[in-house]
Design brief:
Keywords: Oxidoreductase
GO molecular function: oxidoreductase activity, acting on the aldehyde or oxo group of donors, NAD or NADP as acceptor
CATH superfamily of the largest domain: Aldehyde Dehydrogenase, Chain A, domain 1
Distance between the termini: 52 Å
Strand order of the largest sheet: 14-15-16-13-12-18-19
Protein name: Aldehyde dehydrogenase
Domain Aldehyde dehydrogenase: 7-479
CATH topology of the largest domain: Aldehyde Dehydrogenase, Chain A, domain 1
CATH architecture of the largest domain: 3-Layer(aba) Sandwich
Number of domains: 2
Structural class: alpha/beta
Radius of gyration: 24 Å
Largest sheet: 7 strands, mixed
Family: Belongs to the aldehyde dehydrogenase family.
Length: 483
């Protein structure tokens, strides 16, 4: 593990990291003890004072050098990420390692951390007799962003480069120190990120990486008295547990949790655009993304055509070896997760859904593959429509009137990213404003990487990405003085 600038042997030995495409061992990940996790947190605490007082330009220079280090090793880093996750080659290169390098580069740009507030001019009272409450005189004020302190970053398995980079880079840019606890399924890439920051000149203790499969490792990284904030990406159930622990000590939280994105396809929509957007996103990374539009709400006038075209799109998706150039859908992360996804498909049929495509497991000898699946004639009360499956499975639900579609979209425990397709842009924007989701794509599944990202309801707490990530990893301090 990487603790206090040193590579440390794990107290709990090692465990195998398995390639989900071949079922072969990729490498061996360290199993930390709770004592080693606490030691990592203590190292981060010891490094905080110096790092937080390091000029922002110097911190930015470290991030820039780390970005260059990652970019220069893009191919071998992507090969490791692919072996750990089963991602296709384009995904591993562009969306995993490439995005990680871009995020370090993004936060190497220094942004103002303070801004003036309009002076308060008191009325009445004797000249110069400003009270403790500012009843008279002139008071100037400055709002200053200060680092939170030590941040524990617990990252998801679906992107072992971009997800940690999206936490580590802005946290370090703001002057925080970090302990990263990567997902146990694919932690090896995060150690390459640690190597990059070490080579870039990050002082000892500024970044620490601990790893382990046991629940105790994650809980120690959250509960440590040295930790001031927890940034987590993962399931809502785990997020709730982390929130309970953080609440006892009033620790700051940034939570990116589950999603069950609704895609409203209105009766005047361009069906080709809608099908392409839904199809590419629900199958991307084998559906293991929280932003996927896995709950398609189709207005009755286009419902039958949409189901037919979406099924045809799913049938054309090449499933297989993620290293092959023509593969679109690789494996899911593990055998256990494959069983979970398949059990949801079986449950959907039991609930009355019709499997239009994807009824059988792909014919491959090895690997944890799931066929892209379209379930039609669904209702919003089915479990397949309400619970996050996290696989290449989409459910299609018909509706009649626009108000009904909005109500169905909002009838969910989740509210991360929704989508609207309509040829009438003003209508689409009107519908988008009514959706209870942290983000809405209008006639697109694309994302603006400076736009705030986060969810309503059980999809999370807080916002990150762009400048919003700098806000998330900082506290605001007011400094007031007499004018």
């Amino acid at each position: 593990m990487f603790i206090g600038g040193e590579w440390v042997e794990p107290a709990g030995g090692h465990y195998a990291v398995v390639d989900p495409a071949t079922e072969e061992t990729v490498g061996w990940a360290p199993e930390a003890s709770t004592e080693q996790v606490h030691a990592a947190c203590a190292e981060a605490r010891a490094a905080f004072d110096s790092w937080s007082r390091t000029p922002a330009q110097e911190r930015a220079a470290v991030l820039a050098r780390a970005a260059d280090h990652i970019r220069a090793r893009l191919v071998p880093h992507a090969e490791l990420a692919q072996a750990e996750t089963g991602a296709t080659t384009p995904t591993a290169r562009a969306m995993q390692v490439g995005v990680a390098a871009a995020r370090f580069r993004r936060y190497a740009a220094v942004e103002p951390a303070e801004w003036a507030i309009a002076p308060q001019i008191g009325e009445g009272g004797r000249k110069g007799a400003a009270s403790a409450l500012g009843g008279g005189g002139v008071l100037g004020a400055l709002a200053v962003r200060q680092p939170v302190g030590v941040v524990t970053c617990i990252t998801s398995y679906n992107n072992p480069w971009a997800n940690p980079a999206g936490k580590v880079a802005p946290a370090l840019a703001m002057g925080n120190t970090v302990v990263v606890k990567p997902a146990p399924q694919d932690p090896l890439s995060v150690y390459r990120m640690a190597e990059a920051l070490d080579a870039a000149g990050a002082p000892p203790g500024v970044l620490n990486v601990v790893c382990g499969r046991s629940v105790e490792v994650g809980e120690a990284a959250v509960a440590s008295a040295d930790v001031d904030m927890v940034s987590f990406t993962g399931s809502t159930a785990v997020g709730q547990r982390i929130a309970e622990v953080c609440g006892r000590d009033m620790k700051r939280q940034l939570m990116e949790l589950g999603g069950k994105g609704a895609a409203l396809v209105l009766d005047d929509a361009d069906l080709g655009s809608a099908v392409a957007g839904i199809g590419t996103t629900f199958s991307f990374y084998s559906g293991q993304i929280c932003t996927a539009p896995t709950r398609v709400l189709a207005q009755r006038g286009v419902y039958e055509r949409l189901v037919e075209q979406l099924a045809a799109y799913a049938r054309r998706l090449k499933v297989g070896d993620p290293r092959a150039a023509d593969t679109v859908v690789g494996p899911v992360i593990s055998a256990a997760h494959r069983e979970r996804v398949e059990s949801y498909v079986a449950l959907g049929r039991k609930e009355g859904a019709v499997t239009v495509v994807g009824s059988e497991r792909p014919d491959v000898e090895r690997g944890f593959y799931v066929a892209p699946t379209v379930l039609a004639d669904c209702t919003n009360d089915m479990r397949v429509a309400r619970e996050e499956i996290f696989g290449p499975v989409v459910v299609v639900i018909p509706f009649d009137e626009e108000d009904e579609g909005v109500a169905l979209a909002n009838d969910s425990d989740y509210g991360l990213i929704d989508y609207v397709w309509s040829a009438d842009v003003s209508r689409a924007f009107r519908v988008a404003r009514r959706l209870r989701a942290g983000g809405v794509g209008v006639n697109t599944v694309g994302r603006n990487m400076e736009a705030p990202f986060g969810g309503f309801k059980r999809s999370g707490v807080g916002r990150d990405v762009g400048s919003y990530a700098l806000h998330a990893y900082s506290e605001v301090q007011s400094i007031v003085w007499p004018g």
